[in-house]
Structures are given as C-alpha cells and as structure tokens.
Write a structure and sequence with these properties.
Length: 143
C-alpha cells in the first residue's frame, strides 16, 4: 500500500525546492541553451517524495516484523532489495557511513560552564557568594 501524493492538501510532503535545484545543478552538467524547467523540477520533487515514502514504508514494515521500534540502516537495505532496487544499496550504505563519520568529527556543542572560561572551583565560589548575598537579603526582610 503506497501513499500517493496530491497537491491539494495542507499536509503535503515535499522537499525544499532550492535544495533540489542545487542538486540538479551539481549533478547535471550545464549545457549551452539547456535548462531544467520548473515544472520538471516539481515533478522530480514529487517523484523523490514518492520514492522516500515507498522505501520508508517498506522499511517500517520490516522493522515491525522484527519487533523493532527504530528503523535502522539494515531495514533500509532490506527494503531497497525487496522493492527491486539492489543497485542502490551500496551507495546508500556508503552515504550512511560518511554521515556517521561526519557526526563524529562535528564540533561538540559546548555548555555554558565551558563557555565561561572559569574553573569549576571559581564557579562554585561565585555560586556560594550569590547564595550568601541572597540569604542576607532574605533575612533583612522587606525594605
């Protein structure tokens, strides 16, 4: 059971047109006098969304059969093979591996404590001073 795309509902699935246009531009070598029409780009977007929906639905069914709550790369692998797209498996798994590596080397987010440039001891001392000041204000009562 494959969901179909319609262009009438507010919950339509789509891909960013600028991103798809960038992919088209990078992949297709520009030829003099040849352009990619907007309606062709929109049709390509619809096809991509349909393909993603098809693969993800199949991968979801495979995961459910295995009593898994998370769709993993191996479920996508099986879905591609079962739907007749085995030629995509190697490229998809390579891209997944590259993505994993990129995540590992990505800059770690720093927390506020790291951003202060102060030692843990200095931060603890400042905190104690603030507690002391707040306690004194509280004990003085209304001004």
């Amino acid at each position: 059971m494959s969901p179909t795309l319609s262009s009438s509902g507010p919950d339509d699935l789509s891909l960013p047109k600028a991103t798809v246009q960038k992919i088209i531009t990078e992949i297709l070598q520009p030829s003099p006098g040849v352009t990619f029409a907007k309606d062709a780009r929109d049709l390509l977007i619809d096809c991509c969304v349909e393909f993603i929906t098809l693969i993800s639905s199949e991968a979801n069914e495979i995961a459910e059969k295995e009593a898994k709550k998370t769709i993993a790369a191996e479920h996508i692998d099986k879905a591609l093979r079962e739907l007749g797209f085995p030629e995509y498996v190697q490229e998809v798994l390579a891209s997944a591996g590259e993505h994993k590596e990129a995540l590992k080397t990505r800059e770690k987010k720093t927390n506020k404590m790291d951003q202060t440039g102060l030692s843990e001891e200095e931060l603890a001392r400042q905190q104690e001073e603030l507690f002391k000041s707040a306690t004194e204000k509280y004990n003085q009562g209304p001004a």
